[in-house]
Design the sequence.
């Protein structure tokens, strides 16, 4: 989470190389942290919530900043933000309605969505650094693919929530 303000300051100061470095470093340290937790069996409940929240906040911040800078399509930013807000609000509503916490498990589509979002942001940052010229068609395909998979993952999570709620309301006899 500490990387988010640093990343945004660098990005909005047009220090794209440094912003890319912070974005990549945040991803690498996140992956290492997760791998260490799994290997040493030191997963915590707090970490299970904070880690994906930090990832999502970094990605959402990147999409919002890049949309304002007109580097990613607004529609893609809206899809990314809407899905994440829907997940948080949906989880809160399910808990409020049932007083039971739904187990949060990422789906394959959700993981692919996050991967494609990271690819989209990285593609734009690399393009801004001008290390490699990125053909517009590559960015366009990446953006459309990211939007479609993100929307599909959001619908899948929504269906999971409805099915879980239906089981909760039906009672223990039908579970």
Sequence:
């Amino acid at each position: 989470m500490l990387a988010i303000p640093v990343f945004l300051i660098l990005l909005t100061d047009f220090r794209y190389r440094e912003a890319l470095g912070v974005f990549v470093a945040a991803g690498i340290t996140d992956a290492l942290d997760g791998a260490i937790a799994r290997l040493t069996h030191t997963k915590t409940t707090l970490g299970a919530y904070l880690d994906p929240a930090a990832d999502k906040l970094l990605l959402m911040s990147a999409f919002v900043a890049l949309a304002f800078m007109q580097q990613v399509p607004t529609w893609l930013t809206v899809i990314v933000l809407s899905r994440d807000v829907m997940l948080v609000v949906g989880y809160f509503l399910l808990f409020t309605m049932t007083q039971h916490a739904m187990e949060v498990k990422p789906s394959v589509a959700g993981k692919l969505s996050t991967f494609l979002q990271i690819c989209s942001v990285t593609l734009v940052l690399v393009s801004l650094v001008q290390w490699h010229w990125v053909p517009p068609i590559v960015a366009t395909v990446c953006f459309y693919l990211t939007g479609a998979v993100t929307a599909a993952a959001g619908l899948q999570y929504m269906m999971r929530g409805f099915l879980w709620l239906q089981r909760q309301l039906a009672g223990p006899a039908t579970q």
